[in-house]
Amino acid sequence: VGSSVHTGGSIPINVHKKKMIDEGETPTVSKLYLRIHQTKGSKWVDDKSKAAYEKYVQKLSETQTTQASIDGSNPSTSSEPSYEQQMKIWIDANGLTKRGR
Hints:
Blueprint: H1 13-22, H2 29-37, H3 47-71, H4 83-94
Helix pairs in contact: 2-3, 3-4
Pfam family, one: Transposase_24
Region (Disordered): 62-101
């Protein structure tokens, strides 16, 4: 599978998250992932990153649709899951990272 490629340099993800907050942007799993896996021209750093993101978006959509059917709400107007819920959805979609081990 190989290691992940990103544009974040040596900056930890929590620092990227804080920068987003300082810039007035709500950090979501999706926004953080796009920030460090796409170039400024919105090109993916590699196909693996694109595939992982697409799996997450699909799982997120399925989760929101399922939750909306339980709540009886419209999936497009339902509230965004918490950051912790988003991380759980990411893990469900892509598994845990082994960091090259």
